[in-house]
From TrEMBL:
Residues 518-554 form the ATP-grasp domain. This is GNAT family N-acetyltransferase. One of its GO terms (molecular function) is acetate-CoA ligase (ADP-forming) activity. Residues 758-921 form the N-acetyltransferase domain. It comes from Corallococcus carmarthensis. Keywords: ATP-binding, Ligase, Nucleotide-binding, Transferase. Pfam families: Acetyltransf_3, ATP-grasp_5, CoA_binding_2, Ligase_CoA_2, Succ_CoA_lig. Gene3D superfamilies: 3.40.630.30, ATP-grasp fold, A domain, ATP-grasp fold, B domain, NAD(P)-binding Rossmann-like Domain, Succinyl-CoA synthetase domains. In the N-terminal section; belongs to the acetate CoA ligase alpha subunit family. InterPro entries: Acyl-CoA_Synth/Transferase (IPR051538), Acyl_CoA_acyltransferase (IPR016181), ATP-grasp (IPR011761), ATP_grasp_subdomain_1 (IPR013815), CoA-bd (IPR003781), GNAT_dom (IPR000182), Ligase_CoA_dom (IPR043938), NAD(P)-bd_dom_sf (IPR036291). The keyword Cell membrane does not apply. It comes from the Bacteria.
Length: 922
């Protein structure tokens, strides 16, 4: 196929030519697999960190060269010592620094000068010591960033790579090799876990102490471990989240293929000073963190024991499809304990189907429990256990099974375990076991564990683990569950809302009046009760007469926060006399409190005649995650009942529904005690619009709709409160969203060569059905050119694949779709082409890919999509954009060259591939 190769790469005259031929490398490789290491501060002093680190490196066979750096000694531990990094005979990959904090900036500067690409700063004495330490850290970071030098630490234990024999820590000994990566902010905890793991024979693919995370944070490490073939699950001990957006972005991408399990310390600490709104009062920072973990598909556990339990279980057993567990036992008491743990944790006992009960009746003794828990009695032998497990495992009402065995006179723990090991892989249903006892059941436990059935000493522990399993499965399912079609952007509504906010800020105000707040909601299609402003008693009467009685009068004030707290709400006013009295009562109530200047009139509204439920929908700021959304039971007792769920914007209808499902009032909204159900679909869409408001109006600091009155008839906002950021807060200093919102700025029209006009816009999760139709219509030739191979139609249109295509983290990946609008102007339209730009993890490079439907080819669509992707790459500040293209795909090669890409050959490519490279920023 040599004759199909493109022309020989041009001579290297371009200053950026080296970038054309560079391989894209993960910059954290040097921290885990260096070819050479310098220990700066190496020492022979017994008990010193410098001695232990050097000894660990030279006593572990990682295959690289170790250079002690100590200007005071000719050798350390019998190895020639060097006075400085500059004096070394080669430029090392990694420097491990164990010198006093004040010396570290100069050492990092030396690292930058000699080309060191990674450093582990074990030294303490930085920000934990106060302002001077913070200054030292910032100086170190500034030098490192200028040199593209990545740092773990400072104030850390170090890095261990057991699978590669690399130990750059001052821990005692090396961890066993395994497939679990463990990352901790506590070095002391890490050493304790190491000691425990050696006793329990638990192995690790990586063992990392991150310290104060000056540079390398959670997101960087998750990205690195995502591509590590030795890592099957990632465990985190977290004290602070650091860069929230980087963590959520990395975790969401990786969680589907590798479980991420976290234990977060400090969950009972008092939150930062609460905001004045109901939402701010309700949304504690730890609860926000849990919501963020759910959004990213991360499993949060409560104990270190559970951290390792879940790593084992998720590696060995399938995720359950629901929360219903079947208990199989030879004793009643343990099953009751397991049931308590299951139900109190949100799980459910599976209800045995009639068919399953009939089958069990056929072979179990008559006194069996005839329900779940399935008590097969104390004389159960191995065969009875096996038949019962097989029967209950086939019940469609069950999502998982827990087998409990207590050692009784007739029990056969080892034989039963041997008989059950064949059921370790029930399709789609996890099987757990609790072999209770000591030495008598130990052999059976080993048999089950070796077969892949996790065992637990106590059944309540096993039930708790199952609860974690279904929660994890639920989190993962929520990542890629297709939402209903989103409503189109509000367009002019955004401008109306922005004008309201700008006008208030220009006047020096931080509080919108209720009248302004309702206009703001209306701009986003959120229905509000009709509201009129009245500044005098006569005007209030006139407005009430126009609306019709009964009416509601509420305080109109540009400064008062909560109207009910100052007697500013008067309900169900039946006539003009009551309106006059209410107007005066509200005004006088403020005067009595010394707030006469805060009275700016009243609003007049019709008295809502809805028999429904009062909800709250709100947004407030979290110090780590920025804007946070709240949904729950509302009204005046909202803080008392505290029935709420939190989420991060932006929402889609799936995420909105899942927020609702986490509240108790959700059950009532479906219709109880003869009440008609609420239109939950309409409520979901309203929550999406509310989320859109929060995303698009960043100068809003707090927002409450309380109450949001809902019934089977309609949904309407009765009251709203909006607090803005102070006028002196600039757009650049506003809190950032934890999750990148939909990038409307990249939606533009495109005219094809044939004159047809298409809309090119970023892809949305709701595009999955249209994307399925697009892939279904592609010819085999087009599929082969795009994917360098054939793909079955069933694979192309599989939900999991299409969902991952349509669910973009817009900070990492941008897919543009060219859409032919529907003839009726509704729906998502027909997708004719897709162009995708994907960041390569841990680098400043990105890869592009383009697919054009067969009828739309040769109309300039591929060229235009690639042009727009290059513009996005410039916005992202990328170094390079690359793509691997089949040598026979002349069309894509021509498009690439037309837009300034160079075609180069790379050794790592297949012989029938060529790489297109465009350097954006050398």
């Amino acid at each position: 196929m040599d004759e199909q190769r493109p022309a020989t790469p041009p001579a290297r005259t371009d200053p950026s030519i080296d970038l054309l031929h560079q391989r894209t490398r993960q910059p954290l490789e040097v921290l885990f697999s260096p070819r050479s290491v310098a220990v700066v501060g190496a020492s022979e002093r017994a008990g010193s960190v410098g001695r232990t680190v050097l000894w660990n490196l030279i006593s572990s066979p990682f295959g690289g060269t170790v250079y002690p750096v100590n200007p005071q000694r000719p050798n350390v531990l019998g190895i020639k010592a060097w006075p400085s990094l500059r004096a070394l005979p080669e430029a090392v990959d990694l420097a491990v620094i164990v010198t006093p904090a004040k010396s570290v900036p100069a050492i990092i500067r030396e690292c930058a000068e000699v080309g060191v690409k990674g450093a582990i700063i074990i030294s303490a004495g930085f920000k934990e010591t106060g302002p001077e330490g913070v200054k030292l850290e910032q100086e170190v970071l500034r030098i490192a960033q200028a040199a593209n030098l990545r740092i773990i630490g400072p104030n850390c234990l170090g890095v261990m790579r057991p699978t590669g024999g690399f130990n750059a820590t001052f821990a005692k000994g090396m961890a066993r090799p395994g497939n679990v990566a463990f990352i901790s902010q506590s070095g002391a905890l890490l050493t304790s876990i190491l000691d425990w793991s050696l006793r329990e024979a638990v192995g690790f693919s990586a063992f990392v102490s991150v310290g104060s995370m000056l540079d390398v944070g959670w997101g960087d490490l998750i990205d690195f471990l995502a591509d590590d073939p030795m890592t099957r699950s990632i465990l985190l001990y977290m004290e602070s989240i650091g860069d929230a957006r980087a963590f959520l972005s990395a975790a969401r991408e990786v969680a589907l293929t590798k479980p991420i399990i976290v234990i977060k310390a400090g969950r009972t600490a008092q939150a930062a000073q609460a905001a004045a709104s109901h939402t701010g009062t309700l949304a504690g920072s730890d609860e926000v963190l849990s919501a963020a973990f759910r959004r990213a598909g991360v499993l949060r556990v409560d104990s270190i024991e559970d951290l390792f339990h879940m790593a084992e279980v998720l590696a060995r057993q399938p995720r359950p499809s629901g929360r219903r567990l079947t208990l199989l036992t030879n004793a009643g008491g343990p099953a009751v304990l397991a049931t308590d743990a299951l139900v109190s944790g949100g799980g459910e006992l599976a209800v045995l189907s009639d068919a399953t009960r009939a089958q069990l009746d056929a072979f179990l003794p008559p006194p069996w429990s005839h329900a779940n828990p399935v008590d097969i009695l104390g004389d159960a032998d191995a065969e009875r256990y096996a038949k019962a497990l097989e029967t209950t495992g086939a019940d469609p009402n069950s999502d998982g099974l827990l087998v409990i065995l207590t050692p009784q006179d007739m029990t056969e723990p080892t034989k039963t375990a041997d008989r059950l090991k064949g059921y370790a892989k029930l399709p789609g249903k996890p099987v757990l076991a609790s072999w209770m006892g000591g030495s008598e059941v130990a052999a059976g436990e080993r048999i089950l564990n070796d077969a892949g059935i996790p065992t637990f000493g106590y059944p309540d522990t096993a039930a708790r683990v199952f609860n974690y399993m279904w929660r994890y499965a639920d989190n993962i399912a929520g990542l890629y569950e297709t939402p209903t079609l989103a409503e189109e952007p509000t367009g002019g509504g955004r401008d109306v809302a922005r004008a309201l906010v700008d006008e208030a800020r220009a006047a020096g105000r931080v509080l919108l009046s209720e009248y302004e707040s309702k206009r703001l909601l209306a701009a986003y299609g959120i229905p509000t009760v009709e509201t009129w402003l009245a500044t005098s008693e006569e005007e209030a009467v006139e407005k009430a007469r126009t609306l019709g009685f009964p009416v509601v009068l509420k305080l109109h004030s540009l400064t008062v926060t909560h109207k009910t707290d100052v007697g500013g709400v008067r309900l169900n006013l039946p006539d003009e006399t009551h309106v006059r009295e209410a107007f005066r009562a509200i005004r006088d109530a403020l005067t009595e409190r010394g707030l006469a200047d805060a009275f700016d009139g009243v609003t007049v509204q019709p008295m809502a005649k809805l028999d429904g439920y009062e909800l709250i929908l709100g947004s407030s700021l979290d110090a780590q995650f920025g804007p946070v959304l709240l949904f729950g039971a509302g009204g005046t007792l909202v803080e008392v009942f505290q029935d709420r769920a939190l989420g991060l914007p932006p929402l889609n209808t799936t995420l909105a529904r899942r927020m609702m499902e986490r509240t108790r009032i959700h059950h009532a909204l479906k219709g109880v005690r003869g009440r008609a159900p609420v239109d939950l679909g309409a409520l979901e869409r309203l929550m999406v619009r509310f989320s859109q408001l929060v995303v698009e109006q960043p100068f809003i600091r707090e927002l409450d709709i309380n109450p949001l009155l809902v019934s089977g008839e309609r949904i309407i906002a009765l009251d709203a409160r909006v607090v803005l950021h102070p006028p002196d807060v600039s757009a650049a200093s506003l809190p950032k969203l934890a999750i990148e919102p939909y990038p409307h700025q990249y939606a533009q029209l495109l005219t094809l060569k044939n004159g047809e006009q298409l809309l090119v816009r970023p892809i949305r999760p709701e595009d999955e059905p249209a994307m399925g139709r697009f892939h279904q219509a592609l010819s085999e030739q087009t599929v082969f050119m795009r994917y360098a191979g054939l793909m079955k139609l069933s694979q192309r249109v599989a939900h999991e694949r299409l969902a991952r295509i349509c669910f973009n983290d817009y900070a990492r990946e941008m897919a543009l779709v060219a859409v032919r609008p529907s003839p009726d102007g509704k729906g998502g339209g027909e997708i004719l082409a897709v162009g995708r730009l994907t960041r390569l993890r841990g680098t400043k490079d990105a890869e592009f890919a383009i697919t054009v439907s067969d009828p739309a080819q040769r109309l300039g669509l591929g060229t235009e999509l690639l042009r727009r992707l290059v513009d996005i790459g410039k916005d992202w500040g990328l170094r390079r954009i690359v793509a691997d293209i089949l040598t026979r795909n002349r069309g894509m090669q021509a498009v690439s060259k037309k837009l300034g890409f160079t075609l180069v050959e790379h050794e790592e490519l297949a012989p029938d591939m060529v790489k297109a490279v465009k350097v954006l920023n050398g």
